[in-house]
Amino acid sequence: MSEGVYLGLDIGGTKIGLCVGTPDGRVLATDRLAVDHSLAPEAILSDCKQRLLALLKAVGPSAGRVLALGAACPGPLDYARGAFINPPNNPRWHGFGLRDWLKAGFECPSAMMNDANAAAYAEWLWGAARGAQTAVFLTFSTGMGAGLIIDGRLYEGPLGLAGEIGRIKSSPQDDGPVGFGRRGSIEGYCSGPGLSQMAHAEAIVCTHTNESSVLREVLAREGAISPQALCDAARGGDAAALRVIERSASELGRLMGVMTDILNPQVFVLGTIGSAYPDLFIPRAMRVLREVAIPAASAIVDVRPSTLTHRGDQQALAVAAYTLRSGR
What we know:
Layout: E1 5-11, E2 15-21, E3 27-34, H1 41-59, E4 66-73, E5 77-78, E6 83-84, H2 98-105, E7 110-114, H3 115-126, E8 135-138, E9 146-150, E10 153-155, E11 178-179, E12 182-183, H4 186-189, H5 192-209, H6 214-222, H7 227-235, H8 239-263, E13 267-270, H9 272-276, H10 278-292, H11 295-299, E14 302-305, H12 311-326
Parallel strand pairs: 1-4, 4-7, 8-13, 13-14
Antiparallel strand pairs: 1-2, 2-3, 5-6, 8-9, 9-10, 11-12
Helix pairs in contact: 3-12, 5-6, 5-8, 7-8, 8-10
């Protein structure tokens, strides 16, 4: 008989991941459902509960008892009320009290956590930040947020809003790509939607200057340029695509340089896009980081892609683990 299992909910803008896993981060069973934005969160979560119970049944008696349930959520979150604060990709969830719903729906201990913090904790427990005393996880996905491990502890701040770096601007005059509702923000330069915006603009420049580029072809054919199409073009040596990557990676390096001077971390771990294309972003960002940060601090910093094979599920399991360890 197992010592028990965790249940996980990974709530996103387009889908919700559900899983059953072990205290050492192994995922035993998973399910996914698309988020229907016409439905209230209660209706969606009712379906989630039934699916979690079905997963638990599929794992069988060997699972043992349910130790805890963790929910990784898009920020920002109101930790005092256990509720969402204007999640941009889940508009009907604004103000929804997920913590109370979890407590009413499940007998086991449960908690919610900003997904960037959850991912940082998962990387520290089981992934690329394992063994580090101070580490930073950068989501680099639909948005750009940071999860902070400081002196061996997850740091969330008194309101749970630590690490909301996406809205930072390198310069007040920067009118670059939009992210976090602000032109020229870190999220604008270092997120999937931001990369698409920059790739679109670069394709237009190529059209006006008659420069041949894969970006022009993709834009003409698809009407938009996905981050994957941009990065694939850059890997193929497309000059315009490489200019976009260089700008994004430079902004990423400047951000990490500032965070290095403030936090003196041992490692930065990059999420979705950075982990899919580490060859494009890490060397360029590291060059800038070392140019701008205190030399002694930058000398000990490593930048790594996430090594979690089921990061979304494992970040939810990490919230469950944190719930038991912290007593929150």
